[in-house]
Amino acid sequence: MENFIEQLSKEQLVEVERQMAMYSLGVQEIIPTEELKNKIAKSVLLNNPLKIKLGLDPSAPDVHLGHTVVLNKLRQFQENGHIIQLVIGDFTGKIGDPTGKSAARKQLTDEEVKFNAKTYFEQFGKVLEMEKVELHYNSKWLSNLSFEEVINLAGKITVARLLERDDFEERIALGKPISLHEFFYPLMQGYDSVVLENDIELGGTDQHFNILMGRHFQEKFGNEKQVALLMPLLEGLDGVEKMSKSKKNYIGIDEAPEEMFGKAMSIPDELMKKYFELATDLPPEEIKIIIKELFSGELHPRDAKMLLGTTIVRMFHGEEAAEKAKQQFIAVFQQGSIPDDIPIVEWQGEKQVPIVELLTILGLQSSKSEARRMIQNGGIKINEEKVLDIQLVVSMTDNLIVQVGKRKFVKIRLN
Amino acid sequence: MENFIEQLSKEQLVEVERQMAMYSLGVQEIIPTEELKNKIAKSVLLNNPLKIKLGLDPSAPDVHLGHTVVLNKLRQFQENGHIIQLVIGDFTGKIGDPTGKSAARKQLTDEEVKFNAKTYFEQFGKVLEMEKVELHYNSKWLSNLSFEEVINLAGKITVARLLERDDFEERIALGKPISLHEFFYPLMQGYDSVVLENDIELGGTDQHFNILMGRHFQEKFGNEKQVALLMPLLEGLDGVEKMSKSKKNYIGIDEAPEEMFGKAMSIPDELMKKYFELATDLPPEEIKIIIKELFSGELHPRDAKMLLGTTIVRMFHGEEAAEKAKQQFIAVFQQGSIPDDIPIVEWQGEKQVPIVELLTILGLQSSKSEARRMIQNGGIKINEEKVLDIQLVVSMTDNLIVQVGKRKFVKIRLN
């Protein structure tokens, strides 16, 4: 590729540097940085927008905060006039898993794909200006590939290169089978880039291999190579695993304000910095101050987390809803009934327990007759609901909260 | 598969055993033997012919004796009423090598494929009854496979299984690249069997892996599995390498009778047994006697080879031509000018040597003047051609024969 940087005027160079600084923020890896800069230079010089690709799984249209890490980055490109290309990987969705083994790869109908895409679109609209976004379905080109064209595509990559992918390498090492068709998923993603002629492909670091396939195939087909822009993965509420729907550790961007706020409050303190940086739209300078004050002790972790929760709710539901969610949280969880340091009981007993028995076993009441009286007086709550039936059989679940009067609580933990 | 053997009458069992004995003759490997027997039993019981598949490379239509090993086996099946399915692998031929690296995989036009198939047909007619043979072009089904169907096919095989193929294993070990498209050649051959629903596939032992692919995919597609019938590879005239056109160590079945006979006479003695067994149509009992007498010394190796040569020529040109070729060979090489135990001279000198000098250096004439006289009297021959020019400069080549009078010979060997 021609060197466009050396052709820039001083003002143009300033603009290129400004964009580079913006896109680099929070990024895990740019492959390679110089090419990104040169592409931006070309775009500034020729006044041509860049094409930025993001591939989407058509089977899981529930967008959560983990997705917004990439969406926020896309928004930056969009703000500078570049073109966002969303690619729905519907070809894979439509063919399903040929071995029938993977429940995750269930076969989707045309209607399901269209419905899921629509769902994406509605949700993405909270971050991106959707009327400026290009939407592509990769079945449009992939389903028409002939066997000959597939062979031709396969002829442009070696088996050794494909086996370098982490999960393949691992499975080979463990002697676990890899079906040959699995080699085609990275090929398809790469070929999408050949067709779309995009300049940049965005994704999480787990897309490292697949996005480099785009570079590989664009080059093999004689195109300009895309730059890979890899974003860190956001851990979920558990603070350990990548946020995902299947792990149930996610904050969906369509969730109700109170739910969203409550979930944000539940993340481990150590993750706050990452959430502020990757999952909010606060200006970088403001984030820096928050983190500094948090570390120096000027800002209490609870207050910082409140700010995080408010910001996240505000992004998807607006200022008013955010404030309301915050107030409600304070009402219920701080001033309200359940403090957040209540004793936890590891429950090893039966799964179905009569309420009277439960109260005595947990030591919340000294006798069954006392327990019965307390129920009749309306002094017992299970999960904040008053128990009125002394015959009630309680189904023991994880995080069940048993409350006696105003101040006595026990939280159940199941193993 | 149902057990058909136990359903046979006594006479039917005799017939099955007869066919089994015939098909097993000279075979390297049957995978598995019991299935072959059961398939024959089914065919005898239901009076249904079996389908026997042979795949053909569309790029090399010159049939040589090496091919006839398999053709002779096919003829046995045909004689028992089974159906021969010849599959021209024209799909691969038409797409060529997508990497452009392999000269062997040059792209063929429709016309070339048709022409080559016709050539096969004409030549195979010398061994098989062609009007009873089914001819298939695999492009008919392969070129119409969609990407989805290719993925489905690829989903039925693991990468590890493909990497077991000897040449892949070797290249992985040597760090030599394997292009992904190469994985598809065995898949195609396997899929051909799915489409053709053949009972047996024949091939040389070098087709072991590919033919087992047919079994694999037929099973994966829910069909009855084909039996692999692998024939030994016939070494060429050099006695070392597999007979092949590129190695120039072959006897083409379209060659002239004399050429054929001469080439047959040139094979190493140790190979005679294999040639008799694999490349002639002599009855097994007769071959056994020949080999026994050859080993005991009752039959002179030269006579055995004459018999081999006559038989081979007779198979492709008829009795009369065979006898004529034999007589001509005897006239030229035995009674004729050049005995086969003439002295050999390792030539280290110039490559261009005046004839007069050559005769003295070789010690065939005691002086140059004597040599000149001998030439003028017509007593000198080079490679059986009379030398008339005393100024002749001889180009020294390997196997050049210099003859003086009727009985003095020297054969030149170059290093």
Automatic annotation (TrEMBL), chains A, B:
GO MF assignments: tyrosine-tRNA ligase activity
Gene3D superfamilies: HUPs, RNA-binding S4 domain, Tyrosyl-Transfer RNA Synthetase
Motif stretch ('KMSKS' region): 242-246
Residue ranges of the TM segments: none
Location of the RNA-binding S4 domain: 353-415
Major site of localization recorded for this protein: cytoplasm
InterPro entries in UniProt: aa-tRNA-synth_I_CS, aa-tRNA-synth_Ic, Rossmann-like_a/b/a_fold, S4_RNA-bd, S4_RNA-bd_sf, SYY-like_C, Tyr-tRNA-ligase, Tyr-tRNA-ligase_bac-type
Keyword Transmembrane helix included in the entry's annotation: no
Catalyzed reactions per annotation: tRNA(Tyr) + L-tyrosine + ATP = L-tyrosyl-tRNA(Tyr) + AMP + diphosphate + H(+)
Presence of the UniProt keyword Cytoplasm in the record: yes
Protein origin, superkingdom: Bacteria
Family: Belongs to the class-I aminoacyl-tRNA synthetase family. TyrS type 2 subfamily.
Protein name, per record: Tyrosine--tRNA ligase
Annotated source species: Cytobacillus citreus
Gene (UniProt): tyrS
